[in-house]
Amino acid sequence: MRFLHYVNGDSALHRMDTRFKLLCLVMISAACLRGGFVSLAVLSTGAALLILTAGRPRLFLPGPRFALPLAAVIVAVRSLTTAGDPLVAGLPVTTAGILQGLRLSWRLLLLMVYGSLLAGTTRTSEIQDAVRWLFRPLPFVNEGRVATMVGLAVRFVPLMLDQAGETAAAHRARCGHLRRNPLSRLSSVGMSLLRRSLLRAEDISMAMEARCYSETAAAEVDLRSSPRDWMYLAAVAALCTPLLFAGP
To answer: Is 0.90 topped by the overall pTM?
Structure first.
């Protein structure tokens, strides 16, 4: 229930400048999407070290009830739809598809972990200020609008996860999980979650309108970096550059 929520702390990752966190996340994401199994193993080791230094590791990892079925579905779909030598004669399951599915699911879960590290160690207001600062030099880009969209997404995704857990718990309390038809169970939970999400989005929009929110009225924030932030950025760049050119 605390996944993707901000976790108060005083680790090096908490104290790091948010602008440098975003730049590091972009480089790590590019290396993750580009790399093969060796690159993913290196990035997974880095993620494990960051989680240990940030404290309370369970809060930065997706639950196994979500991660394992997601990985299983990806591997199953890729193994059935990828051409190659069949793993077992007479079955449409290929070895190349299984390897591609494992690599794709590993990439997705690793991106989720690094995203949770950013969201769990950085306040939403700090992410908005950093996005506004990074997009300000770009022409024809409304940095205030982009920062608002990113801030709302960072706030809304954890709320949707919380609502999904509450909806599933209410569904079980009403013995909805005893229905034999899995589509009926899924539609019941899904429609309830969709309705609550739309109502929450409407409440947020009305609250912003009632407070006369303006994307151009944000106060200027003095963002300052330290030599330690530059050292972290250089270390991530030195790690990700060879992984980008290593290939899948």
So the answer is: no
Residues 45 and 86 in one domain: yes
Residues 69 and 48 both lie in one domain: yes
Q: Do residues 30 and 110 share a domain?
A: yes
Same-domain pairing of 73 and 117:
yes
| Cα 163 to Cα 157: distance, rounded to the nearest angstrom | 10
Query: What is the pLDDT tens value at each position of the chain, 248 positions in all?
Result: 566 777 787 888 888 888 899 999 999 988 888 878 888 888 889 888 888 887 776 777 776 667 788 888 888 888 887 777 776 666 777 878 888 888 888 888 888 888 888 888 888 888 888 888 888 888 888 888 888 888 888 887 777 777 777 777 777 777 766 666 667 666 777 777 788 878 887 887 788 778 777 666 565 666 777 888 899 889 989 988 888 777 66
Question: What is the secondary structure of 35-104 as a DSSP string?
Answer: --HHHHHHHHHHHHHHHHHHS-GGGGS--HHHHHHHHHHHHHHHHHHS-S-BSSTTS--BHHHHHHHHHH
In a domain, 178, yes or no: yes
Total tally of structural domains belonging to the chain:
2
Domain of residue 207: give its range: 155-214
Place of tokens 């590791």: 57
> What is the distance between the alpha carbons of residues 12 and 50, in angstroms, rounded to a whole number?
9
